[in-house]
Design goal:
By secondary structure, this protein is mostly helical. The chain has two domains: about 110 residues, Rossmann fold, CATH 3.40.50; about 190 residues, Hypothetical protein af1432 (Orthogonal Bundle), CATH 1.10.3210. Strands 2-1-3-4 form a four-stranded parallel sheet, sandwiched between helices. Helices cover about 55% and strands about 5% of the residues.
Length: about 400
């Protein structure tokens, strides 16, 4: 039986009311966990409001008391309450272990340092463990998602949240003022931009922008994956998907933009969390043979980028529609029926975007051999008309690379 147990709770929210609510939730869930198991909690270490990510006074007091053998176990609601940075989490866990103290998380079934049986795990299992240790989405992203999903939210509320981040504000205004939207006058107000772009497009832009920032490689990192090119491709894919929907007279799905722009985020996971194997996989890639490339990822990393992307979508509780697209954008017929049309549109947009990036290379039916066109009631003949329509319009709109500068 566990004995000498303490709890640790922390909140990074600035609003006092929101902070108190979050701390209360953490406290109650830890107490409930102990109550159901007949465990006695000695005390809570509660981080004060003036603590920062760089200096958490109560966390250091906890580590000091651990060294003094005052307890044997520490319970947290989630490991993010210890720190958002993975290195910091590992350091805290190692410090506790060095004093014979075990750290428990109520929401994550994982360990921060390799166990003795780590060598027995498959490549896929190791990668999945790393993904479970990913940080939560930034608070501003969660707030935007919450507002977008609430039918009673207003553009003014959303504008207020986004305006707190200068980088996000800049990117939203760049998009709405791009040739893609073609407004004769410059849009300078973030609230006006939201009214034009719509809530769901804003969500996609905020998600992608934040994820790009979160995973951007450090200056001294080996850069096998061109991150700027990847995000430029993702935005091009989102724009083409909208054009395909328009040409086929298929109503816009609320999740289209977000799913389009996030469809390849699994590549970032492979590059960041299985870098060595991913480099080898990239060396096996065959230009424009997307299925062969998936097989190379699976061979060397244990997961392909569709599966890796789906893991993080599930980890962050993104909508099912987005998960389905991420997981099936190379085989849309395998998506759940209600999401097949959107997945098929994005699968085609993905191929068209790749060809467009190669100076509008000719479409070959071999490039879409794994996409069931019957889902969209089109055939091998009119697919060429759709491709040329999309690429000709893109030519008139110029470069979009600067959106992710």
């Amino acid at each position: 039986m566990l004995n000498k147990i303490v709890g640790y709770i922390s909140s990074n929210k600035k609003n006092p009311v929101e902070r108190d609510v979050e701390l209360k939730v953490q406290r109650e869930k830890i107490l409930d966990f102990c109550r159901k198991r007949g465990l006695m909690l000695l005390e809570f270490y509660e981080e004060p409001a003036n603590s920062t990510e760089d200096y958490k006074a109560e966390l250091f007091r906890l580590l000091h008391d651990a060294a003094a053998k005052k307890f044997q176990h520490v319970i947290v609601l989630s490991l993010d309450r210890i720190a958002f940075d993975k290195v910091a989490k590992v350091w805290v866990n190692d410090e506790l272990k060095s004093h014979g103290v075990k750290l428990h998380s109520l929401t994550e079934n994982m360990v921060l340092s390799p166990d003795a049986d780590e060598k027995t795990l498959s490549k896929a299992e190791k990668l999945k463990k790393k993904v479970r240790d990913l940080p939560s989405l930034p608070e501003i992203v969660n707030k935007v998602i919450e507002l977008v999903q609430n039918p009673n939210s207003s553009a003014a509320q959303l504008a207020k949240v986004i305006s707190n981040d200068a980088g996000l504000t800049s990117r939203v205004l760049r998009l709405v003022n791009s040739a893609y939207y073609g407004f004769p006058k410059q849009i300078a107000s973030i609230q006006h931009a939201i009214a034009i772009l719509g809530f769901t497009t804003i969500r996609g832009l905020v998600l992608s922008s934040s994820i790009f920032k979160m995973f951007a490689p450090k200056d001294n990192a080996v850069k096998m994956l061109d991150y700027k090119k990847l995000w430029s491709h993702s935005l091009t894919c989102a724009i083409i998907a909208k054009k395909i929907s328009k040409m086929l007279k298929i109503p816009d799905d609320d999740n289209m933009f977000s799913a389009s722009i996030l469809h390849d985020m699994g590549k970032i996971i492979l590059d960041q969390y299985d870098h060595g194997n991913y480099i080898i996989a990239l060396s096996d890639f065959v230009d424009l043979d997307l299925i062969q490339n998936l097989e190379a990822e699976k061979k060397y990393c244990g997961l392909n980028h569709c599966e890796a992307g789906d893991l993080i979508a599930q980890h962050w509780n993104l909508p099912d529609a987005i998960s389905e697209v991420i997981r099936n954008h190379h085989a849309p017929q395998e998506a759940l029926e209600e999401y097949q049309k959107m997945t098929c549109i994005i699968a085609l947009a993905n191929v068209f975007a790749v060809l467009h990036e190669k100076d509008d290379m000719e479409l070959n039916l071999m490039y879409i051999k794994n996409i069931d066109l019957d889902i969209l009631n089109i055939n091998n003949s009119n697919i060429f008309d759709i491709y040329y329509y999309c690429t000709e319009e893109l030519k008139e709109e110029g470069s979009i690379d600067h959106f992710f500068d």
